[in-house]
Amino acid sequence: MDIAVEIDRVSRRFGEIVALDSVSLSIRRGEFFSLLGPSGCGKSTLLRLIAGLDQPDSGTIRIGGQDVTGLPPFRRPVNMVFQDYALFPHLSVEENVAFGLRYKGVPRGEQAAHAAEALALVQLKGFEQRRPHELSGGQRQRVALARALAMRPQVLLLDEPLGALDQRLREDVQVELKNLQKRLGITFVFVTHDQEESLTMSDRLAVMNRGRVEQSGPCREIFETPGTEFVARFMGAPNIFTARVRGAVEGVLSVTLPGGGDLRLADGDPGARWSAGQQVRFIVRPERLELLADSSEPVKSPVIPVIVRDRVYRGVSTSWIVEAGHGDRFLVTRQSGSRDGSGEAFEVGSRALLCWDPAHTVLLRTEG
Amino acid sequence: MSGDWVRRALAAATAAAYVFLYAPIAILILFSFNAARQTAHWEGFTLEWYRRLLSNELLLHSVANSLIVAGVTTAMATVFGTLAALALARGRFAGRAATQAALYLPVIIPEIVMGSALLTLFGAVGLRLSLATVILAHVAFSISYVAIVVRARLTGFNRSLEEAALDLGAGPVGVFTRVTLPLILPGVVAGALLVFTISIDDYIVTSFVAGVGATTLPLQIYSMLKVGVTPEVNAVSTLLLAVTVACIIIAQRLQRAPGPGRGV
Amino acid sequence: MSRDVPPARRSAPWLLLAPTWLTLGLLLVLPLLLMLGISFRERDVYGGLKPIEDLGATVVSGAFLANYTRSLEPIYLAIAWRSLWMAVVTTAVCLVIAYPVAYCIAAVAPPRWKTVLLGLVVIPFWTSFLIRTYAWMFLLRTEGLINTALLGSGLIGKPLELLYRDGAVLAGLVYGELPFMILPLYASLEKLDRTLIEAARDLGAGRLASFFRVTVPLTFPGIAAGVVLVFIPSLGQFIVSDLLGGAKTMLAGNLIQNQFAVARNKPFGSALAFELTAAVLLCLLVYALAVRRAGREPLL
Q: Is residue C120 within 8 Å of C163, Cβ to Cβ?
């Protein structure tokens, strides 16, 4: 497996602020990798370090196996699509796209052809003589992309390039970008704060928070089995359950749920030691939770009695916010009108039973 | 509406002020074509005085001197001032406040003081007064104006553009010549024109540091004025005005060129 | 914007600033320091500097301040006073003339005209001060236009002595400095929020009251800037007083120039020059404090 970008214990601070705290990541060749996180988490800083626009205080960065840590940006085989596009206002579209070609040794006469090729990739053929101020936001974004792609970089860095586009356009561009990446086979490193966006496009992603990588791996893994509370919340799974360990026998963990219910989980971590009375936390995604009518019929566990507090209709899906006896609230999201026991009959204020398939329980690692 | 008379009064006052501003100059220009020599009576249209200017050796020599001084001063001050503005725009560094203070000094200090100080310097180091000393003096006070004008142009300059250029393979020199300079060029040229005009017009400082044979146009005009009012002075004034106005118009056109602003 | 990344501190741009530092250091700072030093010396018979025999005694006895004490003599104080007075009156007259003009351009004139009107103010601001002063010579002299017109129309019998007096200098100064007052006033008035005036009127203030209680205070930065831009050059004025005032109206600038060119007393001239500079710096200080106290954004 080829590593395109290797980030090894990189740290960067600005005065008092620690932007990156000993971050390590491996990005594989040809993959679409996202750096995901809230504002201020360090993802943009990390991207700039890869680009060479900034230098780390400690640690190394390797691109294609080569140590680039001291190298200035114009010597690195990477190119960046800036968030504000940074198109040169005094140059035409073609001149913008061809800007860096002379540094790759492309002769004057061939530059126009290269530029045209890059523009064709982003479907902007015919726009060569226009000026940046004559273009729409979406068009400028494509020119910025074409300009970077024309350089045939080993790694393409994208700094929240879709931020300024409206929703409809964003979704279209997301698909296009994904397809483009697959076709070209270039490694993409994509920075965003939008988890849906990163899931749509990436092969793997890293969730960052306050200068650290909370979790990195394939999208599915991060989505289905978030490792920490932060990642869970960021990926839209704000259901943190607290339970008490009753005992652990042959890899099966028994815990007592709030409300007295019972739950048995397969304990995925063979080395873990559990003691009775120990508190554990786990997550169940809103889409995996079910609401059942409160009846005297015995129900398969796990089960938690709740009161429906709020209901939000979102068109495609409907969400309920329910409250358990001890005050914790959980989010249940189902497709609107789906049958299995969760019909719209749940009025606000009514009682219900919260249950789920134990296989969908995700234990949280203890943080810290 | 009672506001009407106020508006009209204001308009009238403004018109009067404009007349006050332009009448003397207009009269000056008008009378440069007056055939009468001594009096202010109109005696017919003539270009005689302009013809005499063209054969006035001293005057032409002083024009040549002025152009040389202004040319060299503009070239040097523009380069130094632009570099200084670029340096100041980069952010904080040791000595920044002192540099800015030094750059404001020529603008604040009365010309009399600057002129006498420079004369003192040249006397102390034993440098003979000549055209060169005039050039030195002019460069000294001109750098500030270029720096201020270019600096104004640089505020709001989008840093991403330079970063994008670096990212695309341009070294620091390439970034400057292909991105920074083209975008600040209107400001640089405006600064250059400003400095050129100031240098051509300067009297006080020049009068202190000009040597024999280094008479510039303002110095020549001044001595003509002291001797007495003649229509030739009117003629030379008119020409000077015309050239200055032309420079201003060019500068205005350039200031309206699209700026770097938010990198598009 | 991903710009929540603070920019790194950069090292001093030595190369970029070297020429500027060199030039300003040698041709500005150094001469000023030299001149300061000379202001403490005495002139010798030939117009040079008398060598210092005993530095210690000179310092202790206060003899090094001889030039400065001399400048306090009545004859020189009179010149200083006249310069100050001239500058004050010039500034006041400019303010009175400029305010309506600036107001007109900013508030009354139709938008299409603004650029043109402003341009017309700017042009004199750029043209030769010498020429603009000469224009007044042309107008005011005994064979000048004004006298010729008045004589010709029979209003007076013999020509008026308009030139070579304080009034002529004042006229020349106001004429020369007017654009410097109009432009900052315009800048301030342009930014004025007109709804505030409407609010004042709504609350019962008459035109005059709302002008003095709302407009004027709000345009204070412009007024302050204009005052500074007119007052300071007027203090150090030389050309206008030389051409239009003649020997009768000697201002500070003329006195200083005289010391260097005619009286050949560099030490005294230097001392005077520094006193003028001190006055200018004092004005700037007052300006800075005044604007800060007014709590508004300074224009300069």
A: no
Whether the CB-CB separation of A212 and A190 falls below 8 Å is answered with: no
Q: Measured between CA atoms, how close is A62 to chain B, in angstroms?
A: 17
Nearest CA-CA partner of B141 in B192, B214, B198: B198
**In chain B, what are the domains?**
57-255 (1.10.3720.10)
Q: Do A82 and B183 touch (CB under 8 A)?
A: no
**Closest chain B C-alpha to C245 CA, distance in angstroms:** 12
Contact B202, B146 (CB under 8 A): no
C272-283: b or e for each residue (b if 16 or more CB lie within 10 Å)?
bbbbbbebbeeb
Question: Number of B:C CB contacts under 8 A?
Answer: 237
pLDDT, tens only, B122-146: 988 988 899 999 999 999 999 999 9
| pLDDT tens sequence across A310-330 | 988 888 888 889 998 888 889
Which residues, 6+ apart, have CB-to-CB distance to A291 below 8 Å?
A306, A308, A320, A322, A332, A341, A342, A346, A352, A353, A354
Q: How many helices (H) and strands (E) does chain C have?
A: 16, 0
- List subunits contacting chain B, requiring 3 or more Cβ pairs under 8 Å: A, C
Q: Which residues contact A109 (CB under 8 A, 6 or more apart)?
A: none
**Look-up: residue for tokens 């040791």?**
B94
C51 assigned to some structural domain: no
Residue to mutate among C1, C3, C4, C5, with most A CBs inside 10 A, is C5
Nearest to C131 by CA among C243, C251, C18, C261: C243
Chain A touched by B170 (CB under 8 Å): yes
**Are B189 and B81 contacting, i.e. CB atoms less than 8 angstroms apart?**
no
Of A79, A86, A151, the CB nearest to B161: A86
The chain C residue lying nearest B14, using CA atoms, is: C101
pLDDT higher than threshold 80 for residue B254: no
Q: Sheet containing A329-335: which strands, arranged edge to edge?
A: A289-293, A351-356, A303-313, A317-324, A329-335
Three-state DSSP at A85 gives coil
Q: Is residue C115 part of a domain?
A: yes
Residue C87 inside a domain? The answer is yes
Tell me the C-alpha distance between A363 and A242, whole Å. 10
pLDDT band, very low/low/confident/very high, at B115 (cuts 50, 70, 90): very high
Q: Give the ipTM.
A: 0.81
* Statement: residue B43 has pLDDT above 80: no
List all residues of chain C from 126 to 165 with a beta carbon under 8 Å from chain B.
126-132, 134-139, 141, 143-145, 147-149, 152
Taking the C-alpha atoms of residue B80 and residue A326, their distance in angstroms, rounded to an integer, is: 73
Q: Note down the domain range covering C169.
A: 71-293
Asked whether the bond before A302 is cis by omega within 30 degrees of 0, the reply is yes
Count: domains in chain C: 1
Put simply, the answer to whether B229 touches C138 (Cβ < 8 Å) is yes
